[in-house]
Design brief:
The structure is a single chain. This protein is α/β, with parallel strands linked by helices. The model has no long low-confidence stretch (mean pLDDT 86). A six-stranded mixed β-sheet has the order 1-2-3-5-7-10, with helices on both faces. The protein has helices spanning 30-45, 75-93, 110-115, 147-150, 153-162, 168-174, 185-197, 201-214, 219-241, and strands at residues 6-11, 14-19, 51-55, 60-62, 99-103, 106-108, 120-123, 128-130, 166-167, 179-180. It has nine helices and ten strands. The protein has two domains: 6-197, 2-enoyl-CoA Hydratase, Chain A, domain 1, CATH 3.90.226.10; 201-241. Helix content is 46%, strand content 16%. Belongs to the enoyl-CoA hydratase/isomerase family. This is Enoyl-CoA hydratase/carnithine racemase.
């Protein structure tokens, strides 16, 4: 595929995707998301890929989606955009191999919920995290999905209602990111990805499936579901050894 907004690179067992939007703040557009989904599928089918690294461009990781003039758009156009955005979240959260986000800059809105789909995240120290929908008189919908699992209700409502900005240190305390890069964010995120690539990728993928499946279940349901995934994980380990 001849990509305009995505750069897919191979670095040994690591595959890195860099998204460069043609919109300010590195916003997600339908063509841009189509290219990201293509790159994800390429990495999924690449047997030599053992971990996926994703980063943004310039001073922004991603500040959400660009819908355009939604006031003059019909419901079908808005649904098309929403379908693409939710599909992007689904495919990244379900990616069967380890994923790492190199947060190169400010992150907000749908970009914040997209960040939550990654297994691990390393951020530049000056990055800010927010839900900017309030500035346009809107309420975050998709933006809160996933993030509400990391942040308390009070912090979510503070972000949505007051437009509060969370800095990198508080984001790490809240579990939005794993660490703050001391030097080059791509270098440190790549190191994370390399370490993850040494694990049993199949077993790690099963662990991710269980994490998503068990979300929202009762304790008893989680135990029952866990038994099924335990068998799958052990068999995955057995296949790797043989």
């Amino acid at each position: 595929m001849d990509c305009q907004y995505v750069k897919l690179e191979k670095k040994g067992a690591i595959r890195s995707i860099t998204y460069h939007s043609d919109k300010k703040q590195n916003l997600l557009t339908i063509p841009g998301m189509q290219e990201i989904l293509w790159a994800i599928e390429e990495c999924r089918n690449d047997e030599n890929c053992r971990a996926l690294l994703f980063t943004g461009w310039g001073d922004y990781f991603c500040m959400g989606g660009y819908l355009g003039d939604y006031k003059n758009q019909g419901a079908e156009e808005i649904i098309q955009f929403a379908d693409m955005l939710t599909e992007l979240h689904k495919q990244m959260s379900r990616f069967p191999k380890p994923t790492v986000a190199a947060v190169n800059g400010h992150t907000g809105g749908g970009g914040l919920s997209f960040l939550e789909t990654f297994d691990m995240a390393v951020s530049v120290p000056w990055a800010e995290f927010s839900l900017p929908e309030r500035q346009n008189g809107l309420a975050p919908m998709i933006s809160l999905i996933g993030v509400q699992n990391s942040l308390s209700r009070k912090i979510c409502m503070e972000l949505a209602g007051l437009g509060t900005v969370i800095h990198a240190e508080r984001a790490m305390e809240a579990g939005i990111i794993n660490r703050i890069a001391a030097k080059d964010v791509m270098e440190e995120a790549t190191d994370y990805a390399m370490r993850l690539s040494d694990c049993n990728v199949r077993a790690f993928g099963v662990c991710k499936q269980f994490y998503v499946a068990a979300s929202g279940m009762s304790y008893e349901q989680q135990l029952e579901t866990g038994k099924q995934y335990l068998v799958t994980m052990l068999k995955s380990k057995e296949r790797k050894q043989t």
